[in-house]
UniProtKB/TrEMBL annotation:
Keywords: ATP-binding, Kinase, Membrane, Nucleotide-binding, Phosphoprotein, Transferase, Transmembrane, Transmembrane helix. It is an enzyme of class 2 (transferase). GO terms for molecular function: ATP binding; protein histidine kinase activity. InterPro entries: Sig_transdc_His_kin_sub2_dim/P. Its EC number is 2.7.13.3. It catalyses: ATP + protein L-histidine = ADP + protein N-phospho-L-histidine. This is histidine kinase. The lineage of its organism: Bacteria, Pseudomonadati, Balneolota, Balneolia, Balneolales. The chain crosses the membrane at residues 36-59, 71-94, 114-140, 152-173, 185-210, 231-251, 285-305. Signal peptide: none annotated. Residues 325-396 form the Signal transduction histidine kinase subgroup 2 dimerisation and phosphoacceptor domain. It comes from Fodinibius halophilus.
């Protein structure tokens, strides 16, 4: 069923970061469902591979990671846990990648004789890059599948910032290993370089080649939840985080460089040393100017986003007002037509003409009521079905119920439908109720109650009519137009009418449909026999 619901939405969103949170997965499918169970089993397998790779990847001589720039870069370039967990991050979500990456790195730290408290911080520092990716891609609409140059450029930029963030772990490593300033500088530079090269030259091509296939598989087996609208807080947090990481990176580079120079000055002539110190002051000034420019750019970005948000809110307000005005005018026009039909009903003496006018009046009312509800509420795209159907049933009773001594009892839970579905559903409900009122004329003097039950089960709306007296037949109707309308409206809702009869000659009529956009009710109607399954 996951490959059927919301296909259009999932296709349009494919390539964007769409996490599959643990909480949603367990609540929606349960831990022991086949799909969720296989997914967790595959994740545990990758977790084990990531964890065991650390044991294999641990160098025999830790000193090689403190003195060799090439050794550190190669270690980070092909570090399996980071590689595997980045794919889990993009394809499934943050927690899927964070947990194995953190525990694997924590294991690596313990294996290098790092104290537990430092190992905990070391694991967090290394996976900071994953947090950067999650935060930035959650707040933007770029595709991680890299289908355009803008997607690729954005990915490389975020990869650079993420690598800088994760390189903070090298400072913890250097402190615990008691490295010299020169060795610390080598470790720090090699760390972020290796991590950056892994993301760009290993992760990126695989995401490009396999990303869309992974998204299709995810859509085939699961109903991926839509990402909630990103608030300004998320956008501001992303900007502040990126600016902070870049600022810390510049300060770290400047500080480590200054310390390295001071260490070198101890063995340098005093006259030459003073000139070098003077030059380093220039570098320090350049670093602070860079940080100032960076902060200014961050504040400008926040200000720009705030300005865009205000403009967007104003445009939405204007469009909502325009939509409300349109719905109001449509409603008024339909009320005018409805009033004219009502006058005709009172002035005609022909029973057949009066009946047809009543049916037309009821149809116009059902459509006009949707527009009335829409312009009266802020959510212009949704219609409250419980309120709408209640007024619709009352109007049908006024037009037809008194003549046939029929009373309708409505049991409807609060439901919201899009305006397209609401109009189609209202017209179908109106035609069925009208059809019910015109049946069994021989029992005109007997009062009867027809119960209408409308329930929402997941994404499915179920409507049931109980208490209909037999005979009730769509195959030989008095008016072919009524059957044609019921048939066409049923197809638009992608449903069929199911009819059952009990021993007391009472008929139950039922139909169900999924909550999703339908085709317009103004399409050409193609006459066919009623769709009824007895």
């Amino acid at each position: 069923m996951g490959n059927q619901l919301g296909t259009e939405d999932s296709t349009s969103q494919r390539g964007h970061w769409r996490p599959l949170p643990w909480g949603y997965l367990l609540e929606r499918y349960g831990l022991f469902s086949k799909r969720a169970g296989l997914l967790f089993l595959g994740w545990i397998l990758l977790f084990a591979i990531s964890f065991l790779s650390v044991i294999y990847w641990i160098p025999n001589d830790w000193s090689s990671l403190t003195t060799s720039r090439k050794a550190i870069s190669l270690f980070l370039l092909f570090y399996p846990p980071l590689m595997i967990c980045n794919f889990l991050l993009f394809w499934l979500g943050f927690e899927w990648g964070f947990i194995p990456a953190y525990l694997s790195t924590f294991m690596l730290a313990l294996a290098s004789d790092m104290p537990v408290q430092w190992a905990i911080l070391f694991g967090i520092a290394v996976v900071l890059g994953m947090a950067i990716f999650s935060l930035v891609y959650y707040s933007t609409r770029f595709r991680y599948t890299l289908r355009s140059l803008s997607d690729l450029a954005f990915f490389v930029g975020v990869a650079l910032v993420a690598s800088m963030a994760s390189s903070l772990g090298s400072l913890i490593w250097s402190h615990v290993q008691a490295l010299t300033i020169e060795q610390t500088l080598i470790a720090w530079q090699s760390w972020w370089t290796g991590a950056f090269l892994q993301i760009v030259f290993i992760n990126a091509p695989i995401l490009f080649l396999v990303g869309n296939r992974a998204e299709k598989l995810k859509d085939a087996f699961f109903e991926v939840p839509e990402r909630p609208d990103v608030s300004l807080g998320w956008v501001y947090t992303s900007i502040i985080t990126v600016v902070t990481v870049l600022g810390v990176f510049i300060l770290s580079a400047e500080k480590l460089g200054a310390l390295r120079i001071q260490e070198a000055l101890r063995t340098t002539e005093s006259s030459l040393g003073s000139e070098i110190i003077s030059a380093t002051q220039t570098f320090e000034m350049t670093a602070w100017i860079s940080i100032t420019i960076l902060l200014a750019a961050g504040l400008a970005g926040i200000r720009l986003v705030e300005s865009w948000n205000k403009t967007l809110k104003e445009q939405i307000r204007i469009k909502r007002a325009l939509i409300a005005e349109i719905h109001d005018r449509v409603k008024n026009n339909m009320q005018l037509v409805s009033g004219l039909l009502e006058l005709q009903m009172h002035n005609t003496q022909n029973v057949f003409v009066e009946r047809e006018l009543r049916k037309s009046h009821s149809r116009i009312y059902s459509m006009g009521k949707v527009h009335e509800q829409t312009y009266q509420h802020e959510e212009a795209a949704d219609v409250k079905i419980d309120v709408y159907v209640n007024s619709l049933v009352k109007q049908v009773e006024v037009n037809f119920g008194d003549d046939q001594n029929i009373n309708f009892e409505l049991n409807c839970v609060p439901i919201k439908l899009t305006i397209n579905q609401a109009v189609t559903f209202g017209l179908l409900l109106n035609e069925i109720l009208t059809f019910i009122c015109r049946q069994k004329k021989s029992l005109k003097d007997q009062s009867r109650v027809v119960t209408i039950g409308i329930q929402e089960v997941g994404d499915v709306i179920r409507t049931k009519f109980e208490g209909i007296v037999a005979p009730f037949d769509f195959d030989h109707p008095d008016d072919e137009l009524d059957v044609t309308l019921i048939n066409k409206l049923s197809r638009q809702l992608n449903t069929t009418l199911s009819k059952e009869q009990n021993s007391e000659k009472e008929i139950t009529l039922e139909f169900s449909f999924e909550k999703k956009p339908t085709s317009s009710f103004m399409e050409t109607w193609i006459p066919k026999k009623a769709i009824v399954n007895s």
